[in-house]
Amino acid sequence: MTFLERYHNVGDDFLSQVVTGDETWVAYESKQQSMEWRHSDSPKQNKRRGKLSKGIVLLHDNARPHVANRTKDLITSFKWETLDHPPYSPDLAPSDYHLFLHLKKHLGGQRLQDDDEVKTVVMQWLTSQAADFYEEGIQKLVQRYDKCLNIGGNYVEK
């Protein structure tokens, strides 16, 4: 069953099962410096155990790491479902069209000096957002998915 079919059958409860993720770059103001927010030597993120298990529906694009056999096997072992993602439609990720858009507006014009300051500012912003901010991004997914499929899987809008 497709994303839209599931949504029309189950409604907003279906959206509460959708898990998605992505990454973005946060560059320092200096033209000479360009650093990724999370470096490979950064400590691993503390994970919430037991929260994401039953009934998870994973939405991610078709990037190679996401469709690799090892990744597919891991997702299967978690008993998670994956939603079909139209090819060449990266603008279906709520983090891209909602979360990162607002985060980058917040960061615009700020001069951040180092990695720790970037982490602090980003984490403060993320935790200061009300739950309805995140819900709004997920709610937009329905109309974006519909629009994307109606135009043959092309980019929706930025």
TrEMBL record:
PANTHER family reported in the protein's UniProt record? MARINER MOS1 TRANSPOSASE-LIKE PROTEIN (PTHR46060:SF1)
- Superkingdom of origin: Eukaryota
Report what the protein is called. Answer: Histone-lysine N-methyltransferase SETMAR
InterPro entries, A to Z? RNaseH_sf, Transposase-MT_Hybrid
What's a single GO MF annotation on this record?
nucleic acid binding
Which lineage is the organism of this entry classified under, starting from the top rank? Eukaryota, Metazoa, Ecdysozoa, Arthropoda, Chelicerata
